[in-house]
């Protein structure tokens, strides 16, 4: 049984990862593929020379889901003179870009995991350095999140402080051996499936010999009452409960005495 439950735990990781049920952490905080494409466009910079190329670059900024400050400033630039448009593209957009990058970082605060992401995002926000904002979004967050995910998964393996049984243990070990994306999917979704498997497979504890069954305590169907277990007067024995020979004889003897 334990081997089968462990196999179910591994299947959890395979299914969750294969079906894409894990939530991308970047997407969860607004860094969708579209916004990432917008960020890459801005970071690549402008290399044109003609008025048409200047205008086309700003229009491309607006075509992507950019941040609110960048969108507002780009809209104003397009509505202005060609000189104002060129000044915007040649560096005027940077201040708006920096504010939007900071806003993107701030969105991570409420959902930050501990200890690595939480510490990093607080440090980046406190620094106020635009380059720190961009570095956090480009790679810092992913590295910190992976460290937190691995720490959380290690706590779920057998012997850890957050384990629930063989299914979670097997799923956590499989996730730790997988890709960062598979591990993230396990933390966000898969662990709860494995926990449910463990909860559904908790064995029923039999009534041990010599354990008194108190008056009024119902013996549920399927609960084995071992020989020699004293069943107290008034204890309802439910239909289907296998009462073994010693306990049955004790009940009969008491009835005859009465």
UniProtKB/TrEMBL annotation:
Domain of life according to the entry: Bacteria
Region described as Disordered: spans on this chain: 203-239
User: InterPro entries under this entry?
Assistant: DUF312_ALF (IPR005506)
Q: Name one Pfam family in it.
A: ALF
Annotated protein name in UniProt: Uncharacterized protein
Could you tell me which species this protein originates from? Cellulomonas flavigena (strain ATCC 482 / DSM 20109 / BCRC 11376 / JCM 18109 / NBRC 3775 / NCIMB 8073 / NRS 134)
